[in-house]
Amino acid sequence: MAKYSDEIFDRVRESERETVLAIYHSMIGTPGCTWTFEYPDHREIASDLARESLYCMRNSEGKILGLISVDEDEAVARLPFWSREAKKPAELARLAVIQEYQNLGLARRLILSTMEILKQQSVDTVRYLVSPGNKRALSSYAKLDFKYRGKTFLYEQEWFLYEKKL
Questions:
Q1: How many Å apart are CA 94 and CA 56, to the nearest integer?
Q2: Exposure pattern of 110-135 as b/e (b: 16+ CB <10 Å)?
Q3: Reduced 3-state DSSP string for the chain
Q4: Comparing C-alpha atoms, which of 48, 1, 50, 45 is closest to residue 23?
Q5: Spatial separation of the C-alpha atoms in residues 16 and 19, rounded to whole Å
Q6: N or C end: fewer C-beta atoms under 10 angstroms in the chain?
C-alpha cells in the first residue's frame, strides 16, 4: 500500500525515457486502454520532454509510480465541444499508473498536482479525453468534478470529453 506522504511529484528526466516507455507499454491490453506499441512511443515522450510537460509521481526511492502529460494536440484543441469561456486551456493526456499502485487514488493525485502546476502557469481550464470503455478512469475522474462535454470520434476511437475550470 502506498504511503501518500512519501510520494514526490516531479518532472520526468531525460534519462528516464525507457522507463516511461516501459510504463506506457505495460498499460497495453488493460481494460479500456486504447494504447498500442505505436502510441504512445518515443515521439510523444521526446515531445513531452522537450516541452517540459511530462510529470510523474515517485516514491521515496525515486521510482516512478505514475505518469501524466500536458499535451499540445491541435486536433483536440479544435473540437467544438469545449467551453468558449476558456482563455488558456491545457489538455491532460497519457495518464498511467504502474499496476501495484492502481486503485489507490494515485491517478487523482497526479491530476491534482498537475492542475496546481498549470494554475501557476495561468492556465484557466483543463481538458482530457477518455475512452468510454475505461471504467476505472471514468470512475476516478468523476470524483474530481470535471464536466462532461460530449463525445467525439478521433484517432480511430470514440472518446468522452471532460473539462474543468481552474
A1: 11
A2: bbebbbeebeeeebebbbbbbbeebe
A3: CCCHHHCEEEECCHHHHHHHHHHHHHHCCCCCCCCCCCCCCHHHHHHHHHCCCEEEEECCCCCEEEEEEEECCHHHHCCCCCCCCCCCEEEEEEEEECHHHCCCCHHHHHHHHHHHHHHHCCCCEEEEEECCCCHHHHHHHHCCCCEEEEEEEECCEEEEEEEEEC
A4: 45
A5: 5
A6: N
| pLDDT tens, position by position, 70-128 | 999 999 999 999 999 999 999 999 999 999 999 888 999 999 999 999 999 999 999 99
Q: Which residue has the cell 507499454?
A: 25
Buried b (16+ CB within 10 A) or exposed e, 21-36: bebbeebeeeeebbbe
Per-residue cell: 46 = 521526446
CB count in 10 Å sphere of residue 59:
14
Asked if 122 and 111 count as a contact pair (C-beta separation under 8 A), the reply is no
Q: Is 72 left (phi over 0), alpha (psi -120 to 50) or beta?
A: beta
Question: Global pTM?
Answer: 0.92
